[in-house]
User: What shape does this take?
Amino acid sequence: MLNDRLRPQTNNITGRIGEHIPINPNIVTLIGLFISFFAGVLFASDNLIGGAIFILLSGVCDMIDGAIARSQNRRTKFGGFLDSTCDRFADAAIIIGIIYSGYVNPILGALAIHASITVSYVRARAESEGITCSVGIAERAERLLIIVVGSIIAALMGGSHNIMFLTIALLTILSYITVFQRIYHTLENLED
Assistant: This one.
């Protein structure tokens, strides 16, 4: 949703930036993954603001890798595969860091990871059937934004465990809603 409205503007800006970065987009993807791992480490060490900042930095890498690939005509099937795979590892690392810090119980954290991975799986499975399936209330950008905003609010409230619990609960609920939106979208568009 947010992605669809902002995508043309961000692609235009990042495309101009991507034209001038002389690096393989897959390297930028891997850098973004390691930044996400570090965000997870920061969350695990109770540094909510640091974790939020590093999520944003990893998001910049996630935009720039695609911009480099598009603007320099370096798009490859492997690059798309690598990007998607790294995104799943990054999402899990961030939530694992939040679980480790004790801000949420492991059951809720596991559900958040499951929901996040399932959102992406349903899209990939639908697209393997030829159905474009980037629909739903909480795509990856929205999910990460929820964590960033929740982390900043929790930090401003003295490291509130309640705010982080509500953040991850909201993330989980919206992710599962997105799963069902994608299943319904696929059902409506699948030709038997």
Observations:
- DSSP finds seven helices and no strands in the chain.
- Helices lie at 2-18, 25-44, 48-71, 77-101, 106-128, 140-156, 161-189.
- The chain has a mean pLDDT of 91.
